[in-house]
Amino acid sequence: MLKILLVFLVVFAFAQAASAQDKTVLVIHGGAGAPPRKSLTPLLEAQYHAALEQALKAGYKSLAKGNSLDAVESAIRVLEDSPLFNAGKGAVFNRDGRQELNASIMDGKTKKAGAVAGICRLKNPISAARLIMEKSEHVFMIGEGCERFCRDQGMELVSPLYFHADKAWLDLLNAEKKAKGKSSAKVSLDPAHFGTVGAVALDKDGDLAAGTSTGGITYVRPGRVGDSPIIGAGTYAENESCAVSCTGKGEFFIRFTVASDIAARMKYRGDTLKKATTDVLAGLPKLTGGTGGLIALDRQGNAAMVNNTSGMFRGTITQSGKIHVAIYE
Ligand code: ASP
């Protein structure tokens, strides 16, 4: 009897130790603009869960073959290809009824970064951002010049119509209706239209990477750029501290340099990932519009997912392949 108990205790201790070491290697989000729980049908909720899982699996597969940048890029491509999220196919429309896509990616090891904004003919903006990082001498390219560069590097151009999704179009019609009669300067943009996607990853060499991709916010002015393609605001990665991807009202994330502030607090003040992410989000003036959320990962495989909205589409996968996805709580 004693022997059996001993064996059981040893097995239990091993299992505990293994799970303690099962660090998180990839975290993703699909925006902090999840609708209130009761308005999300079970079918739609299941579709969101399935898409998040698919993105996590794609990223995990890339981590096994490649590095954290590969994982970030492939997870985000899956979310960009899904019409459920506000990035790539499914991106929201601006006041002109057009989609302007923004994305950025950063390598925590080298601090190299790439970003794109105001594009509408590159199927996967996150891959365009990576191309800018790896093949140009620049960090940030916009509009037609960016599309031409990517095409010249062999990237296929698609028709802007490819990005159309009925849900995003309906959101625009609703926003237009609400704005009717108000002077254009007074139109307040509805947080329910947030839906950016992002990923942060940690590879076997201990290198971090982060990426973010978005269609922006429904009914914004043409030419408006949010935080998602801005390194230090919507995206940041450095091996010394952490990798971060944000979602929310971009103007606030730019003004408060949210992503790099989290990294700086860890680097210079020794804050934990949890403290830095919670404090920085709490510091946003929520009452005047500083709403959103973010995901972050450090080199020890600690993950943080925080938001001050009704919900955030999000998920994690650990070294051993354990998946967790959630929208609320
Ligand atoms: N941060 C994005 C922007 O302001 C929007 C979002 O996260 O949904 O463009």
What are its keywords?
single chain; Glutamine Phosphoribosylpyrophosphate, subunit 1, domain 1; 8-stranded mixed β-sheet; 4-stranded antiparallel β-sheet; 12 strands; globular
Describe the model.
The chain has helices at residues 2-20, 42-65, 68-81, 125-135, 143-152, 166-179, 250-255, 258-269, 273-282; strands at 24-29, 101-107, 113-119, 140-142, 197-202, 208-214, 235-237, 242-248, 292-298, 303-307, 314-318, 323-326. It is an alpha+beta fold. Strand 9 (292-298) and strand 10 form a beta hairpin. The protein has an eight-stranded mixed β-sheet with strand order 4-3-2-6-5-1-11-12. It has a single domain (24-326), classed as (Glycosyl)asparaginase (Glutamine Phosphoribosylpyrophosphate, subunit 1, domain 1, 4-Layer Sandwich). It starts with a helix and ends with a strand. Helix 3 (68-81) runs antiparallel to helix 4 (125-135) and helix 8 (258-269) packs across helix 9 (273-282). Aspartic acid is lined by residues 31, 33, 86, 194-196, 214, 216-217, 226-228, 234, 247-250.
User: Which shape, going by the Cα principal axes?
Assistant: globular
The total tally of domains equals: 1
Computed Rg: 20 Å
CATH third-level topology:
Glutamine Phosphoribosylpyrophosphate, subunit 1, domain 1
Helix percent reads 25-40%
Poorly predicted runs = none
Q: Any guess at the CATH architecture?
A: 4-Layer Sandwich
CATH class: Alpha Beta
Structural class: alpha+beta
Strand runs, count = 12
Per DSSP, what share of the residues sits in E-state strands of 2 or more residues? 15-25%
Q: What is the spatial order of strands in the main beta sheet?
A: 4-3-2-6-5-1-11-12
| Average pLDDT reading | 92
